[in-house]
Amino acid sequence: MNKIYAIVTEKGLQNDVKIKIQRETVAALAATEVQDKFTLEVTGSLKPEQEEAGNALKEVLEPVIKTIADCSYKVSVSLNAGSQYKPIQNVVPIKGGEPMNLDHKEGEVWLVDFWATWCPPCQAPMQHNEDMLAKNGTKWGENLKIVCVSIDQTAEAVVKHCDKKDWNRPHHYHRAKSDCSQVYSVNGVPHVMLIDTKGKIVFKGHPANRSNLEEDFETLLKGEEIFGSGCEFESAEAKAAASGEAAGGDNAEASAESKLNAADCHAAIDTFAKETAPELQKSLNEHAKKMARALCVMVYEESFNCATGKSTIDWKNYRVLMGPQDAIDEIKKQIEENVKGDYEIVLRE
What we know:
This protein is an alpha/beta fold. The chain has two domains: 2-78 and 258-348; 88-231, 3-Layer(aba) Sandwich (Glutaredoxin), CATH 3.40.30. It contains ten helices and 13 strands. Helix 1 (2-10) runs antiparallel to helix 2 (51-65). It starts with a helix and ends with a strand.
């Protein structure tokens, strides 16, 4: 973690890259071996203008990461609020046609709505899109476009759904073979983007985070800025809350720093993996064989904030016991007597 932190800082990406270690130590009490697995993740979502620094980071990370088993990293360029819109490519009009790119024209304001017919939370925003255009379409004219990109398996399903609902005022496209979900990090729907008259993404996120889209459209059509969570520009209050500086308080990161010591945690888990758990497997084997599940699992997660140089640690002991009550009682008793640490107990009985 320290080596990677030094590299990330050297490349000036400490505000954009995160490092996380997970250790999962599994004692199946009916078994004879303890599984002890470490994983290391390095992840970052960079703006397009950081692409060169991101590529340089990956080049330097590669030899370090190759020395570590079970290590993965993903440092990618993500088009978020503040980025220039990159044309969505290879979508298909839902009622037929060749694959096409969605090119923004200067002077236009767009709402791009990723959705699906099978997604219950998508239905109200889609109805709202139709209602806004029915109410204001003549006034807004061609300078306001609502572009709906369906992630359904087939365009036919979208046509049938939209015709039934009479949702035909927005511009409808089927994602088909487009990579737009990856380019725009659309990991769930509904997911929308607002694009201003200059072709810049000014909001990206869930539509519920914009309480008055009609007002947003009017503001953007005037060439003015919008503010709030998920936007390029946040209000002063939102920035203060995000940085933990609201009401003159201490920075939230200071209070978030873990009180657990990583070395102490790992030493205790080492003892569990090498001594305590094998002894439990021997003494509880017959009881555990009566059970559908009998597990004692340590899960350690350490997230390293490169911006502050501080870690937060989450350490849990999962005790998963499913079977006859007499076997549960005996296993619980021995685990409570023998397994010790500053972890949080999660009992699934």
